[in-house]
Amino acid sequence: MSKKIIRLSKSCLSNNEKQAVLKVLDREFLGMGTEVKKFEDELTKFFDRPVVCVSTGTAALHLALQAAGIGSGDEVLVQSLTYIASFQAISATGATPIACDVDKDSLCLDWKDAEQKITPRTKAIMPVHYSGGVGMLDDIYSFARKYNLRVIEDAAHAFGTKYKGKKVGSFGDIACFSFDGIKNITSGEGGCIVTNDAKVLKKAKEARLLGVENDTEKRFSGERSWDFDVKCQGWRYHMSDIMASIGIEQLKRFSEFSYNRQKLADLYDSFFVDNLRITPISHNYGEVVPHIYVVRIKKMINRKHLQEKLLEVGISTGYHYQPNHLLTYYKRNSHKLPISEEIFSELLTLPMHPDISETDVRFISTNLIDFLEYA
Predict the structure, then answer these.
(1) Whether the Cβ atoms of residue 123 and residue 147 lie closer than 8 Å to each other
(2) Mean pLDDT over all residues of the chain?
(3) Residues designated as active site
(4) CATH architecture classification, 254-374
(5) Where are the extended beta strands (E) located within 127-249?
(6) Are 295 and 281 a contacting pair, CB within 8 Å?
(7) Which residues 6+ apart lie within 8 Å of 129 measured at CB?
(8) In the prediction, which pLDDT does 1 show?
(9) Are 310 and 317 spatial neighbours (Cβ–Cβ below 8 Å)?
């Protein structure tokens, strides 16, 4: 009999999502149509701000950068400790991602380090809301105003997180979210751009449909453009009705999801509060909705061995993330980032999703503490 594995992350789906997909399949219109419009409308209510839905969170970042005028020869400041999507979205525009260090407590962008990397080509800054927290967001916006930079928030981890009582995405310049299979809500794949900038919204809407002007309105009414013009580089980045139908049902369940994530993260913290080697990333879980739960393990020299021991008892783990400035494709533009490099060697990500029980968290935490000798 196979051992139960507590998965690091997973989609949490009910019968409602499955039935919603079947209804779309029965209509036999699977592309971008009324379900996408409905999802956009519901998200607009959620953020109290206009929303454009796209095929992935990476597409959201790419289109947001392009719509903000970022392109060849420009530079974008971004923390190195992030998923490769952040860097790839920047380089996809022709711009150069400039790797910055992180704050050692929040693991979010250190604007003071970013300031050392400003050049006349710097046009934007991309703070990454690591694990759901936002770090020094006020300082980053003050820094951006000082240097006249656009701010494109990579909020893939932070759907539902609040900062000073306001939802991330409901304020600021541009925020991009991901709805892939393991995020705080999912649409299977998918993402969105949230902003009050009407020009960015218009450009993103057209670019997601290969640059075809005014095609969004046609798609939402069940038609398509036959006689059209194209004035910009576009991409096939639109969301499908299948994806949106899942997202609509997930959004209805978000209060349940967020409560469970916050409760589980608080419980994890309680097990490690007195441990001298395990340091959780500090968050106020009254406001932060965690996408992942990350700890730092001091003096860890064999993360792989520790992970193997945990897997033997049915606990899947990971680490988020390998710094991008160490990857071959991005090394050429990088400096040493001592905090990111030191922290990376200490990171371990523990299972986090709404289907985990409190008993699971107790089992995971107890075994991690017991197996520290293998780290």
Answers:
(1) no
(2) 96
(3) 183
(4) Alpha-Beta Complex (3.90)
(5) 150-154, 162-163, 166-167, 174-178, 191-195
(6) yes
(7) 108, 135, 153, 154, 155, 156, 157, 158, 161, 168
(8) 40
(9) yes
Where are the chain's structural domains?
15-252, 254-374
Lowest-confidence pick of 137-146, 149-158, 326-335, 352-361: 326-335
- C-alpha 38/C-alpha 154 separation (Å) is 24
* Residues 216-246 pLDDT 10s: 988 998 888 898 999 999 999 999 999 999 9
Q: What is the pLDDT of residue 2?
A: 56
From CA 87, how far away is CA 324, in angstroms rounded? 7
Tokens of 176: 């991009």
Helix (H) or strand (E) holding 296: strand 293-297
Q: How far from the centroid of its chain's Cα atoms is residue 245's Cα?
A: 20
- The CATH class, in words, for 15-252 is alpha beta
Q: How far apart are CA 287 and CA 276, in angstroms?
A: 26
Cis peptide bond N-terminal to 268, omega within 30: no
Element containing residue 123 per DSSP (H, E): strand 122-126
Q: 254-374: same fold as 15-252?
A: no
What is the DSSP secondary-structure string of 217-254?
HHHHTT---SS--B-S---B-BPPHHHHHHHHHHHHTH
The confidence score (pLDDT) of residue 221 equals: 85
**Does the pLDDT value for residue 334 go beyond 70?**
no
Residue 79 near residue 101 (C-beta atoms within 8 A): yes
